[in-house]
Structure formats: C-alpha cells, structure tokens
User: Fold (5-formylfuran-3-yl)methyl phosphate synthase from Azospirillum lipoferum.
Amino acid sequence: MTGWLASIANAAEISLILPTGPDILDLKDPTAGALGAWDDENIVATVRDLANTPGRPRLSATIGDHPMRPDVVIPAARRIAATGVDFVKIGFAPDGAPERCIDALAPLTAEGAGLIAVLFADLWPSDPCCLPIDRLAAAGFRGVMLDTAGKRHGLRHHWQDAQLEAFVSCARAHRLLAGLAGSLRVADIPALMALSPDYLGFRGALCGGERTAGIDPQAAAQVAAAITTPQPRPSAPSRS
Ligand SMILES: O=C[C@H](O)COP(=O)(O)O
Assistant:
C-alpha cells in the first residue's frame, strides 16, 4: 500500500489538509527551498496540538538546508528529533561529506530517532547503485526519499521510471521505507504507484501547481483521490 505525504507551510494549513487524509504531515517552509525548516517552537506546538487527534497522520519535519558537515548536521537533526516528530528529514547532497554525516548520525538513530534521508534526484547520479543507501541502512535510518532540489522539473524528468523502480527495490532490499517526491502531479500518480513506493510526497500539486501558494483543498482532494483509487493490475501475459 502506498501512502502519501503532504508538506504544509504553517499550522493554518492543517485544517485544510486533514480532511483529505494524508498519511504523513510534513512540516516544511516552501518559501525557503526544498528543505525549508519550520521554527522549532512551531513544530513543538503542532506535535502537542495533534497529539490527541484520533487517527492523526504521522509528522515529519526537515532540519533545513545545511552544508554537509557533521558539526552542523548532527546538532540540527538532534534539535528537530527533540521536538517529538515521528520522522526527521535530512537532505544529503553529493558535495561535501555526506557519508561522514550519515555515519555520524548512527548514535541518534540508536536513541530511537526516525531519520529519513532526502536525496535529490537532480543532484545525485540517476542510478541507485551510486546512492549511499547501504550506508543509510547501516546507520539505522528508517527511510530514504528521492526528491528534487529544483522545482522547475518534476522527478520523472530527471529519472526514468525504471530507475525509480530500481531505487524503490534497493531501498526495500535494505529494509528502508522508500519515498518519491519532486513536483509530482496528479498525472504522475498511477505510474509511480505501480512502482510500489511506501510514500509519494507532494507540495506543489496540493497548491494547484505553485508550491508557495497556500493549500488548495480541491487540488489536495484530487491528489488524495488519485492515491486511493485502486490501480488496475497489470494484465497477465496471454498464452498462445
Ligand atoms: O517532501 C515532499 C515535498 O515537499 C514535495 O514538494 P513538491 O511537490 O513541491 O516538489
């Protein structure tokens, strides 16, 4: 079953998106780039406000956009983990020392933090073998999400579906949750659901195309409907 993640820009958007039933509410400031972070106090307040909501979605929050240095990434991840969100999203770019940052996060996962790595499809080579997936698994990450740093082109512009399928399989083989995002549109949903990722992530599509505009409940309902619509099974090859 593929679930879906909705990135929300502020607490006021919660009441607009909750009726559409996202599996994960992702607290992210879209005006500050692909990994714009919320203020810690607002994350803590949202965790607290939703704590008693029956069937509430899980919460994720990003640590923000940081240079790939352990002395910067580790404290930022630790701070967001302390807010009580279910998942902490950390972006890894190939520049700098992503591997050292990943390894240095192992103590945090050992303490129970649910870390999700965000790898940018427009920055890393389009081959899962070139991604540090084995390293993420060894460090105890819960999942890995392929997203895009630039939002002009969607994920499927940068990676072909066969490459995305290989990414999902590779994450699964390492027992990581696999997520796909990056300017996804409603029209992308059937093809991506066929790859069976654990999650598809959205912001722009929930806002009618422009991710810095607010959530448009009608657009969000269309995304939700496309995710929950049963997908046709691939037909069995005919014997002749
Ligand atoms: O985590 C998912 C992203 O917020 C997706 O944003 P986007 O659909 O605008 O690329």
Remarks:
- The radius of gyration is 17 Å.
- The first strand starts at residue 3 and ends at 8.
- The pocket of glyceraldehyde-3-phosphate is lined by residues 5, 7, 26, 28, 147, 151, 181-184, 201-205, 211 (CB under 6 Å).
- Residues 3-228 form a domain with the TIM Barrel fold (CATH 3.20.20.70).
